[in-house]
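Page 37, continued from 36.
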């Protein structure tokens, strides 16, 4: 069971592949950078009841934090990879940022 977000536009294919290989073992797995945990996150089948018991706006990280001793982390290659981009302003200061598809063609 994998939870991912779509607002990490700089997440690299090789990082995601490494994450998926680790997650395939069916364990608690997350992306990390410098000791901090980030999305995507995978959960083993036995975590489903805990995930279903979450209420309101509680996220799966609450369950993940209850099992930190079982978590396998996949290190992101850079801080840019885990950058959460919700609005154009979030791209400020990032080298190689694409504001529209035409800007991305040279990357």
């Amino acid at each position: 069971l994998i939870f991912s977000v779509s607002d990490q536009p700089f997440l690299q294919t090789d990082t995601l592949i490494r994450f998926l290989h680790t997650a395939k073992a069916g364990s608690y797995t997350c992306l990390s950078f410098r000791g901090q945990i980030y999305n995507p996150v995978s959960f083993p089948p036995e975590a489903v009841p805990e995930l279903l018991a979450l209420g309101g706006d509680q996220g799966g990280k609450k369950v993940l934090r209850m099992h930190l001793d079982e978590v396998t982390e996949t290190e992101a290659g850079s801080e840019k990879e885990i950058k959460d981009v919700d609005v154009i302003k979030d791209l400020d200061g990032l080298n190689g940022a694409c504001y529209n598809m035409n800007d991305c063609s040279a990357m």
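DSSP finds four helices and four strands in the chain. Flag for discussion at group meeting. Strands lie at 2-3, 28-33, 36-42, 71-75.
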